[in-house]
Amino acid sequence: MVRWGVHPDARKQAASPQDIERLPLPAMLHIPLLQHSGAPAKPVVSVGQHVLKGELLGARQGNISAPVHAPTSGTVVAISDYPAPHPSGLGVLSISLEPDGEDRWIELTETDPFSLTPAQIAERVAAAGVVGMGGATFPSSVKMLLGKRSQVHTLLVNGSECEPYLSCDDRLMRERAAKIVEGIRIVLHAVGATKALCGIENNKPAAIEAMRHAAADFAAIEVIALPTRYPMGSDRQLIHVLTGQEVPSDGRSADVGVLVHNVGTLYAIQQAVRFGRPLISRVVTVAGGAVARPRNLDVLIGTPARLLVEHCGGLREPPARLLMGGPMMGLQLPSLDAPIIKGSSGILALGAHEIAQEQPSPCIRCGQCVSACPMNLMPFEMSAHIRIGDLDAVQGIKDCISCGSCSYVCPAHIPLSHYFDYAKGELTARERGKMRQESIRQLTSARKERLEREAREKAEAAARRKAERERAKAATAKEATS
Amino acid sequence: MSHISHAPHAHAPTSISRVMWLVIAALVPATLFSIWLNGWPALLLWLVTVGSAVFAEFFCLRLAQRPAAPVLADGSAVLTGWLLALSLPAWAPWWIGALGAIFAVVVVKQVFGGLGQNLFNPAMAARVMLLIAFPVELTTWVQPAPLFSADALSLSQSFALTFLGQMPSSFAALSGATTLGHIKTELTRDISVTQALAAHGQSMSASLFGLHGGSLGETAALLLAAGGLALIALRVITWHIPLAVLAGVALPALLLHANDPARYLDVTTHLLSGGLILGAFFIATDPVTSPGSPRGQLIFGFSVGLLTWLIRTYGGYPEAVAFAVILMNALTPVIDRYVRPRIYGHASKAASKKGAAS
Amino acid sequence: MIAIISLTALGVALGLGLGLAARFLRVEQDDGLASEIEAMLPGSQCGQCGFPGCGPAAAALASGSAPVTLCPPGGSALVRQLADKLGVKAQTSGMKESVPMLAVVEEALCIGCTKCFRVCPTDAIVGAPKQIHNVLREACTGCGKCVDVCPTMAVSMMPMPVTLQSWVWHKPAPAVAPAVAA
Ligand code: SF4
Ligand code: SF4
Ligand code: SF4
Ligand code: SF4
Predict the structure, then answer these.
(1) For helices A263-270 and A140-149, what crossing angle results, to 10°?
(2) Ranges of chain B whose pLDDT falls below 50
(3) Number of the ligand closest to the Cα of C106
(4) Looking at CA atoms only, how far is residue C182 from chain B in angstroms?
(5) Which of A40, A108, A217, B112 supports an S-S bond with A34, CB 3.0-4.6 Å?
């Protein structure tokens, strides 16, 4: 039985009946080189260069990284900082691409995915820049390799889409179920798993139907209707509900023999492995009370959010809040100029009546947050410690998945998950500070060594010269005397 | 910086004032019934107690130079006064209510730092204080004289009673003990529970409908239980504490009554008298002074119930709920410290300690 | 009421006991402490603390005559370590969290004299004679020594820029402050 979680008002009815629609080619794209967790990609094109659709713009660097590709053919007009789709509005190195309108692909060849070895599949997925599209944006190939190495037996397909408003995964499952199912089979093949469980919340009967139909011929794939409850789409919760197992606190899902992929990711994997198409577009839900006609759009990565909203009839009221992602975990956008990235599941413009605006009051210890927490934490106690700055006393901060269930139910409107993200940032900063100190100490001693070495070398050189001089002197003296 | 809002951007339709006012609303039917049952003095006492609580809160906020209106609107002072009023004898003099309410709000709540900071349940702490300081006033019960009935006091008589302490001479004969008080007294005179109960003329249906002597709100068990169940249905409170409290009383009562009916009261009488229902649904569930985790709440509730039974059976005070609640309030921080849910992905207690330390 | 009083009394008694214990059981500090502390300090001898170098600063810390917050390059991480080591309370909140600074070289002004390179205690500046010099962001402690020696004033200090990776959430504004009565 599921005891945790909350039941936010789903509000999906506006966008979910709308077919996926392709957004016309924008006049300019801004493609951030950091759209994933890990190291940013390194630009491999130069300003003024013409690129084809699907051509590599930024190469991955480091173990955990992902490349980015040109979403359409056109000219690179700038490689510079552009505001990231992030609450801070900080700039991130991005490639600005001016489309030439031809939308011409690089040469692609179709391959039978099942003729490839697991390593080849992983390499194709990596080269296509596929990352987790549910929002975590972890490079998918890394996850697959890890799964292969730890011999996972089950693939969990995350079609829960538990965030309110969003229906991009719902539409994807209804319209492209066969491709998702092929993606599932590709991953099963690549990691050597024998079973796939596809969990879909029971408020999406059409998606369940479509997926069941598409998977009918494959005994290894089972589609399961899940109770509708937030945060069902969180990896750890999904794993528990579908398999009854808990991922150890300091472990990964592979430790309990499972691998979780979102349906959007599986679609991208199928496209990458069968057709060699890199991840250059995604389905985005545009919704919220301030949006005139909510829709689901197929959008090129790098498209400014403003164009999506304009395509949906614009804003019918000044938005009280702009979000990328869902209302439970989404990030506030400072402006609609921010580009769509691989992890953007939705662009929401919420009206004043839709957002939480009440001022926090003192905690009444009602325990609602405890009952809601899917990780079984005690949020009210954690936030009390954080509030007074006692970060060491906070129990379970590392287990918090920042799902926001606690903040959602708190009658005192205490920004609990905000406290936890603050504490996590502060703890990471401390960790960084410690590492920095360590490296400074090393640098200092390295310098000391260098100086000593230089001094020694200098002294030796001087001694040598002196000896030579002496020898020379002695020689001339000898000559003179002889 | 602070203009950036952190997720979640949506919120459940709830707030502290909604919680408080819903609890108050759940008390209304039982309160109206009690007032009808006990006549005008009950209404006057209720007014004085609630009014004093609100006034005391206002005064404290003023003293701390904080805006009073938003805090008063959260309903917590009204609720404190209301619960206290319901736990007092209906015909107690006005100053008992006023003093108790002021004590509850000023000493038990605001001195600890206001809403959410208090260790003890304000209403119950006040009641215990009153019981210790003014035992006579707090244990004088009357046989109910419902409004508009022949025995009922007129409004002017009621004013005289509540505010001037003038008991109309015709009413002296009506004074009677509560069920539990009566049995307590009888037991000390070596009269068995069964005989005492029979002599008290107390029928079960009378208890259910509250047609017997008692404090304002201890009398309408059915209506109180209905209100409590409504709160559970509305998710204002959870079932853990009420059920555990009732079980804590019922289990020992069941066992020992079966063993020796002459010495030990039966379950039904236990459950229906002495404000147990009020305590289980409305007082022990006070969020501020009860543990936050479901398991902690079960332990807390069961202990309250057990203590209630113990005090009733072996202790000096028949009205035991208040003492039991206060005692367990003191243990709440301990319960919260040690009884916590097992964190997802942690094998055991030791593992969760490790997670905290790292 | 009795419970309140007894709890208060208990609290006071325990508090007193702890205080006394802390006073009498305090470990006698040995001379090793200073060197241990010195090992914790960055060791760049930058002098930002006002002492001639890390050694004297460590001695002052060990004798309790300097606050644990003295070392700017160490940052709040060091403050906490020192506080733990010395058994004092870290006053990080009171400490005006100095923003970490970073040296930058104005390329147009640099004449490649290598003076800055030679004074930098952490070899954070790279470059060769007659070439433009550059500061490595990861290695610079912000000590500012290079600023003083540059003949063309090409080096200046600026706050460490915040990037997407180092950005963190601010602390939420506290709830309406609980009333403090009497
Ligand atoms: S839900 Fe809010 S008020 Fe209730 S215990 Fe948690 S933090 Fe406190
Ligand atoms: S404490 Fe963390 S995991 Fe638990 S409900 Fe809050 S945000 Fe979610
Ligand atoms: S401020 Fe200058 S001298 Fe000091 S560490 Fe940085 S680069 Fe080196
Ligand atoms: S001291 Fe100034 S001029 Fe000389 S190398 Fe450094 S930055 Fe350039």
Answers:
(1) 90
(2) 1-2, 172-175, 201-212, 349-358
(3) 4
(4) 7
(5) A40
Please list the residue range(s) of chain C that carry CATH number 3.30.70.20.
101-159
Does the CA dihedral C49-C53-C55-C60 come out positive or negative? negative
Which of A189-203, B98-112, C93-107, C127-141 shows the lowest per-residue confidence on average (mean pLDDT)?
Answer: C93-107
Residue type for position B227:
G
Within 16-75 of C, beta carbons closer than 8 Å to B belong to none
* 8 Å CB contact of A365 and B18: no
Query: Residue type for C62, please?
Result: A
ipTM > 0.85, yes or no = no
By the 8 A CB rule, do B49 and B85 touch? yes
Where helices occur in A2-160 by DSSP H, the ranges are 118-127, 140-149
* Cβ–Cβ < 8 Å for A110, A274: yes
What was the pLDDT predicted at C177? 45
Site of tokens 């006040």:
B126
Kindly report, residue by residue over A358-403, the tens digit of the pLDDT.
888 889 888 899 999 999 999 999 999 998 888 888 888 999 999 9
Question: Residue C79 has what pLDDT?
Answer: 79
User: Under 8 Å CB-to-CB from A274, ≥6 apart: which residues?
Assistant: A110, A111, A112, A113, A182, A186
Upper half-sphere CA count for residue A252 (Cβ side, 13 Å): 13
Residue C173 burial (CB count, 10 A): 11
CB–CB of B120 and C180 under 8 A?
no
Domain boundaries, chain B: 16-167+175-338
Residue C24 at interface with chain A, using a CB cutoff of 8 Å: no
A412 → chain C, closest CA residue: C175
For residue A59, give the 3-state DSSP assignment: strand
Which of A323-332, A410-419, B171-180 bottoms out in mean pLDDT, i.e. has the lowest?
A: B171-180
Mean pLDDT of C36-59: 77
Angle at which helices A205-214 and A168-175 cross, to 10°: 40
Sheet holding A331-332, edge to edge: A20-22, A295-300, A281-287, A346-350, A321-324, A331-332
Residue among B6, B106, B117 whose CB faces C169 most closely: B6
CATH class, range C29-86: mainly alpha
Residue A252 forms contact with C (CB below 8 Å): no
Is domain C101-159 classified as CATH 3.40.50.970?
Answer: no
- With contacts defined as CB-CB under 8 Å, which chain A residues touch C93? 389
Q: List the chains bordering chain B where 3 or more Cβ pairs fall under 8 Å.
A: A, C
Q: In chain A, what are the domains?
A: 107-284 (3.40.50.11540)
List of chains touching C (3+ CB pairs within 8 A): A, B
CB-facing half-sphere around the CA of B261: CA atoms within 13 A: 7
- Identify all chain B residues contacting C167, using CB atoms and an 8 Å cutoff: none
Q: Can you give the length of chain B in residues?
A: 358
Helix, strand or coil, per DSSP, at residue B210? coil
Instruction: Provide the CATH topology of domain B16-167+175-338.
Output: Ammonium transporter fold (1.10.3430)
Copy the structure tokens of residue A252: 């990964």
Q: Are B16 and B286 in contact (CB under 8 A)?
A: no
Q: Looking at chain C, which residues constitute the CATH 1.10.15.40 domain(s)?
A: 29-86
Cβ <8 Å between B330 and C181: no
What pLDDT does residue A131 have? Answer: 94
Confidence band of C180 (pLDDT split at 50, 70, 90)? very low
